[in-house]
Structure formats: structure tokens, C-alpha cells
């Protein structure tokens, strides 16, 4: 996968480039908007990470120009402006995701993988599985070791999200935006409570445990227990 990073802060740009390269991506880095726009228009990328506040041309204008130029490359906007109005503006212009600075690299990586997976065809559209856990999507049923597990609608959606991204650390903010369609507030424990209730139903009386907490980062669904850090 080939990514383009457009970031005028040199240290931030190099940090992102290095982290993404170490994560297995091919990365081009530009430090100004005009070069970034030119590359985005003339080269093929799987995803663009675009700073909004650039010295020569704003990220807003770049997104708008790319979409008007029929470029459908997925775009994540990076900005210190985190108001609802700013986020709505970004999405209306054609951005696919919006991450407010400061952010953790783990969250950015999770969001990148989430967007890239949208373009990967699903092998099985009817069932999602891990170990002896089976989710039947058309029937909206969940079983573990053959035993039926009753879930609320939100619990079903949360488990479906875990199953689709099994093995990956999912930050609370990403879970909030993808499952609850809301911005994560660090002062609320909505996500933790929901995960705890789901864990009680999925893991309490079964082995191996599947839902794991990764301290300081989020949660993951995995057969092998995650070492807590």
C-alpha cells in the first residue's frame, strides 16, 4: 500500500513517515500543499494523510480540488481544529476521516487500516468467526461453543466491529465514531461499560478469552491474550 503524507511540520512529517514505513507502507512525504496536491493528482496512492494548516494552500482547498478533479483517493485530515463545524466542513468537502492533533500514532494507524479495508472485498458476507464464536449476519445471531448468546443491537454492532478487525488494537475514539457515530469524550465511560457488558456475555463462561484490554490504547479481539502495557 502506498501513502502520501502532506505535513509542513518537519519533525511531525518525519515521525509519521518513519512510523508508517515501519508498519509496512510505502510512503511519500511532502512539506507543502502545492507539492502534495501535484503528487496526489499525478500519482496513484491508496490513501492521503493531509494536514489542514499548510503555509501555501490549505488542506481544505486541496481536498476540494482533488474531489473536483475526480480523484477518489481516501483522505485523512490532520488538524488542531477540532470543532464540530470544522469536522463537518472537512467531511462535506470530501474527506474520509478527520483526526485532531495531538493524536496517538496507534490511532492514526487504526484509522488508516479501517479506511483501507473498505476497498477489500469480504470473503464471507454471511458469517464472522473467531475460535468457537460465530456471528451469523443475515440471521443476526451469535453463538459460542454452539450456545446462543443474546445481544442488544449495540452489542451486536460492537462485536461485529471487533470481528471485522480482529487482531487489531481499536482505540476508544475509533470505536465511538464507527459504532456509536459520535465523537469520543474522555470524560465518559460509555465505551468501557459497553465492552465490559459484551465481555461478560462473550467471555465470562468460555475459554479462551477473546476480548482484551490494551492499556492506554483501547481494545482488541484476539485468541492470544494481549500483554497489558
From TrEMBL:
| OmpR/PhoB-type domain residues | 125-223
The record's keywords, sorted A to Z, are: DNA-binding, Phosphoprotein, Transcription, Transcription regulation, Two-component regulatory system
Cross-referenced InterPro entries, in alphabetical order?
A: CheY-like_superfamily, CusR-like, OmpR/PhoB-type_DNA-bd, Sig_transdc_resp-reg_C-effctor, Sig_transdc_resp-reg_receiver, WalR-like, WH-like_DNA-bd_sf
- Does this entry carry the keyword Phosphoprotein? yes
- Could you tell me which residue ranges the Response regulatory domain spans? 2-116
By its UniProt entry, which PROSITE patterns does this protein fall under? OMPR_PHOB, RESPONSE_REGULATORY
Q: What is this protein called?
A: Copper response regulator transcription factor CusR
**Which organism is this protein's natural source?**
Orbus sasakiae
Amino acid at each position: 500500500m502506498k501513502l502520501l503524507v502532506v505535513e509542513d511540520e518537519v519533525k511531525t512529517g518525519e515521525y509519521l513517515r518513519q512510523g508508517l514505513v515501519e508498519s509496512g507502507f510505502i510512503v511519500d512525504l511532502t512539506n507543502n500543499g502545492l507539492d502534495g496536491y501535484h503528487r496526489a493528482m499525478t500519482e496513484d496512492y491508496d490513501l492521503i494523510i493531509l494536514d489542514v494548516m499548510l503555509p501555501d494552500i490549505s488542506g481544505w482547498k486541496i481536498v476540494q480540488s482533488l474531489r473536483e478533479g475526480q480523484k477518489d483517493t481516501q483522505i485523512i485530515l490532520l488538524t488542531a481544529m477540532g470543532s464540530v463545524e470544522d469536522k463537518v466542513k472537512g467531511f462535506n468537502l470530501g474527506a474520509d476521516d478527520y483526526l485532531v492533533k495531538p493524536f496517538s500514532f496507534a490511532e492514526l494507524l487504526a484509522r488508516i487500516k479501517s479506511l483501507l479495508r473498505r476497498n477489500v472485498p469480504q470473503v464471507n458476507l454471511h458469517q464472522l468467526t473467531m475460535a468457537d464464536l460465530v456471528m451469523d449476519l443475515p440471521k443476526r445471531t451469535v453463538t459460542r461453543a454452539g450456545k446462543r448468546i443474546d445481544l442488544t443491537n449495540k452489542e451486536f454492532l460492537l462485536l461485529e466491529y471487533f470481528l471485522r478487525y480482529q487482531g487489531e488494537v481499536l482505540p476508544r475514539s475509533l470505536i465511538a465514531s464507527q459504532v456509536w457515530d459520535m465523537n469520543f469524550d474522555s470524560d465518559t465511560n460509555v465505551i468501557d461499560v459497553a465492552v465490559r457488558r459484551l465481555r461478560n456475555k462473550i467471555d465470562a463462561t468460555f475459554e479462551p478469552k477473546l476480548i482484551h484490554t490494551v492499556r492506554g490504547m483501547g481494545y482488541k479481539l484476539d485468541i492470544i491474550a494481549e500483554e497489558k502495557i
